[in-house]
Fold these 4 entries.
Entry 1:
Amino acid sequence: MSEIDAILNKEVLSREEIIDLLLTGPEDRNKLYARAAEIKTQYVGNVVYFRGLIEFSNICEKDCFYCGIRKSNKKSQRYNLTDDEILDAARFAWESNYGSVVLQGGELESPAFTSRIERLVRGIKALSEDKLGITLSVGEQAPDVYKRWFDAGAHRYLLRIESSNRELYYRIHPQDKTHGFERRLQALYDLREAGFQLGTGVMIGLPFQTTADLADDLLFMKELDIDMCGMGPYIEHADTPLWQFREQLLPLEERFNLALKMIAILRIMMKNINIASATALQAIDPIGREKALKIGANIIMPNITPGAYRNDYKLYENKPCTDEEAADCKNCLEARIHMSGNKIGYDEWGDSLHFKVKDKPA
Ligand code: 5AD
Ligand code: FES
């Protein structure tokens, strides 16, 4: 058995082995992908679940150095959908048989914001006979806020740690009260405590990031025992501070390959979690998300934000489908997902199997 085959058959991967896998060349890389695909088929099946993504506002109180909608970017055209627009988008998801929606927006913390999200969660439940699953992705909040949203009916939460290396974290975020690494970590614990299926993730190919950092990110996710993961390539944005380091970055194609490897390795390490195929993959390769679905990912988040606003939710350059209508996305996605060898789990929540198993008393 070759060295790579031996690693791929291990139950537990060491840091060194993960690094080896991240550094594999084209031939071994294909073995990695094949093993991850096999595990995906065995543990979660070749079914892809839809989460209709509603990017409801790009107003953000934070100033992350990589993000196009950071507070200090005066060039960003700010928008905030009305409640009716958000509910209409959710209705579109419901009528299109998407099992779930994701409410994603810039990070804000205020009593008004808390009530708004709570009202929207209840509204989405009401319009879908209590059936649409709801994932929230609205940042760090106080524990009681998370509880209120969970009680209102949201059941999954995505909060990327962005990087699990504290030092790197502070190279890509301002070091101040609103961007504390410890607070972000605590938020992950609070989310679990509130009852949510817990999702986190990182950006791949950041300036200053090493292969060992990425291996540590995967070990961090395993240690935290997450239920879901969303991670994708970092894509530089001209109106952000990290733009100045663009010459240090890996070429886009390498960042893309690294992101696919991260997904495949995570599938091997955490066999029954949900792994999203990040939209940023499609910004590099037109069928990037489908490639990820082939080698380990099982969740896709079609953008159902009303067309007029899509262009303004620019976290990074070259964001795909910003000029298309949601329905177009549904049709083209369907064909491409079938091509990737997967079925679509229409009308299903597609909850994390990992969460379900964990939930059962021993
Ligand atoms: N490139 C890739 N991903 C980005 N995000 C924000 N800015 C960028 C960028 N420039 C990701 C972050 C955030 C998620 C909503 O989008 O990981 O958590
Ligand atoms: Fe908005 Fe980072 S810039 S959360």
Entry 2:
Amino acid sequence: MHSVIQAGDTIADIMQRAPVAQLEARILIGHVTQLSRVQLITHSERQLNLAEAQQLSRLFEQRLAGEPIAYLIGEREFYGLSFDVTPAVLIPRPDTELLVELALQYLPPQGRVLDMGTGSGAIAIAIAHTRSDASVIALDVSEQALVIAQGNAKKNNAQVNFLRSDWFSALENQHFDLIVSNPPYIVAGDTHLSEGDLRFEPVDALTDHANGLSALQIISQGATSYLKPDGWLLMEHGYDQAAAVRQLLSENRFEEVQSWRDLAGIERVSGGKKSRP
Ligand code: GLN
């Protein structure tokens, strides 16, 4: 038997027989029928038509094959905003909201912010959406990612200037009050890369194909030339990289070098202030 879902099945039937977790089934049925979470309950006797049944069967199969829910519905919430996602960009993580919180804290009024490796644009857009006084530039090496990010800025009514750049390469002589980044930091060959959602995400956004620190190192070093005196650099990193990142920051003469813990209590973001000349 290939397809468990047929035209004429009601939402209630399908919820009972769904081959995936109930929460996921609800999200996928809602996506196919365009019904809200409440409507799925109040319209539980609504029958699926043939096209909906076929689409839902396919989504269940894809989910069973491990594809992330966010890619299946093309969307993920981050910082209270909705972001379009495709396999060209990393799925925004709740952990990364810590980086946004800190950025908002360290950004002076009318500040200039640079987001390096913006992907879906989640960090830059969350900042710009919250702080309309800020001037936000976001860059990525991936043209495909920039298309998604631009769409997300528009969708969320956020003013962000996007730039295609391999780290600092396309930046002119300009200076920022704050540089933020969630760069690829997973070590090459880490088993997480071949497990769960990560298998479906863009590998170049996850790993530096080296020791996990090379992008963090490039950014720490380059940022010293692109920050104003007293400007801050804040970077997300892996659960076991905080000490190494603090060392990179100290080697590059950052001051007030420190790390912050995410909701799980893990040191997830490290940063420092550019020293005065
Ligand atoms: N935090 C992500 C994970 O562990 C990795 C994101 C990244 O490499 N920047 O899945």
Entry 3:
Amino acid sequence: MTKKMLIAGNWKMNGSLAANEALVKALVAGAAAPACEIAVCVPAPYLAQVQSLVAGSPIALGAQDVSTQAQGAFTGEQSAVMLREFGVRYAIVGHSERRQYHGETDEVVAAKTAAALANGITPIVCVGETLAQREAGATEEVVKRQLAAVIHVNGHCISEIVVAYEPVWAIGTGKTATPEQAQAVHAVLRAQLHHAASDHAAGIRILYGGSMNAANAAELLAQADIDGGLIGGASLKAADFLQIIAAAR
Ligand code: 13P
């Protein structure tokens, strides 16, 4: 297998100049020769700070969102062109918190994916069901619909995306999906990607996210179709994040 795992931290709306410096310095020192790829997706105001902190290290810089638009009257938005200026390599798109609190539809997520791809930023496309949807037996249908919208608009370069399966009920709850539950959904997503990109589907990374931590990472990452992690809370603690990185081989 040539593809390396990707361990990406999603800091969400956390951090400060002082805390970021301590965290990233510890990560740079602790992850000198990682077996996996590493990214930190930081709040927009800290992109410049973290860009210089990770310079020359194996840690890539990521953003947590990207505008569908290139420039103009879109107050509060950041374009992919701007993110590129700060060396951003990854952008999370369609995180469930953006779908839930900012009304992002599947179509908006597909357009954000396109905007990132058009500017050489790898989108980390998040999909995932709520607890109610899982209990109603709708998990497959929901994640397939979310991914289908992205494939519909970006089919020609779908092999360039990263997918993150994040069951909403597992995010920030300490209630992680079991490795079997996660693998089952990852296999569904892999099959859908295979349909869209045949030969390339095996090389597309599908990350798991949702209460992944130092204790459960190895077991999750051992699943056949889990190619890395998108980590929230545990990415804010250097020792925990470094343990997850060490488990990704
Ligand atoms: P937690 O790891 O805090 O559950 O967050 C997961 C997540 O939403 C990453 O994007």
Entry 4:
Amino acid sequence: MRILVVGSGGREHALCWKIAASPLVDTLYCAPGNAGIAAVAECVAIGAEDLDKLTQFAIDQTIDLVVVGPEAPLVKGLVDKLEAAGIRAFGPRKNAAEIEGSKGFMKDLAARHNIPTARYRRFLDADNAKIFARTLPLPVVVKADGLAAGKGVIICASHGEAEAAIESMMVGHQFGQAGDSVVVEEFLEGEELSFFALSDGTHVLPMVSAQDHKRVGDGDTGPNTGGMGAYSPAPVATPEIEARIMTEIIRPAITGLKSEGRAFKGVLFAGIMVTKDGPKLIEFNARFGDPECEVMCLRLMSDIVPALQACVDGTLEDFALRWYPDSAVTVVMATQGYPGSTKSGSVIRNIPEERDDATVFHCGTKRNAAGVIEAHGGRVLAVTALGKSVREAQAKAYELVDQIDWPEGFCRRDIAWRAIAREGK
Ligand code: AMP
Ligand code: GLY
């Protein structure tokens, strides 16, 4: 098979690494890829949001399957375009990707299909949004409706803060058009987890749970990021909780989307809050998580390619995936300054070679003219290891982190602390 992966982050490196290991694959391309991905795939200089060029490349190179990593091309309709050109693609069409592209759509879908989620209302008018926010207990959550690169959610400790958040989104256009419409909702108390399931539009195959660390600083402090590290499985996802997530959240969403003419093919990523009343949906995403995908790919024993094909072909019923029972931990190394502005081009040396139980995925790297790896962007490496326990996986990951020579980089030193605290009990 000839496969094209779209994207350039750690998620796409993990996917390429896993896909390249499949005996079914003859040729693997990645657009645009990065310096780490170049070791397992041929990188093509086409941006992940250049729908026309990606489609033309897939036609010219007679690609058998396109695997779309990030949300933006899905929400823009890359899969629709590829399908119209007769090319098979893993990922939802535009009308199903709207579960991530519009938070208001996602919340209304949850309401229509009785999926437990935070009490909310959506608004096109700032004054009405402010009036509703005042009726909610504190803290209040204000969300820009559209894609805002993970920054469009503000947890407001006072009603004044909520009004200011609404004002800056709807009147100040802090997130551009993404904030023309907002969702105002109640705050859910509990422990957060990420849950992933594959779907072919009709059938659903649960994958595994993971937890990521969104805050930049140790002890889960400081501003939100795309994710500073992750681990899988998430101990909070007991078999009972996973069963409830499947029956109360994932299956009703897949069935509901299909009944509304928006069949969802691809991977459904549910952000869940495990509350005292059980699991509640925070949000849906239409793609793998980053860095959750890195830990999932290390834990996946089965060939990933037949699973991706089954989603595209509608043959996911009776499909099974095998997973290593081990835990996986990934530690993200970022350029100093992240999640604020960062300087590109610092040199990274001594990136450890791959081992059976550990791999360094690249999230934002380039190889310079002298062949040396440089950091480009905020999140740069995802150092990922497997272990019999979370503690063992964490120790291995930090052992590799400490071998890397990159003075301009930093990482959190406590990834997986919650799971390790539980293991210790
Ligand atoms: P998002 O950008 O939609 O992933 O949301 C960012 C983060 O905000 C989530 O991962 C949660 O930690 C938090 N969050 C969003 N909505 C709520 C809510 N209703 N209650 C508590 N936390 C929330
Ligand atoms: N790590 C969270 C996300 O990919 O959205």
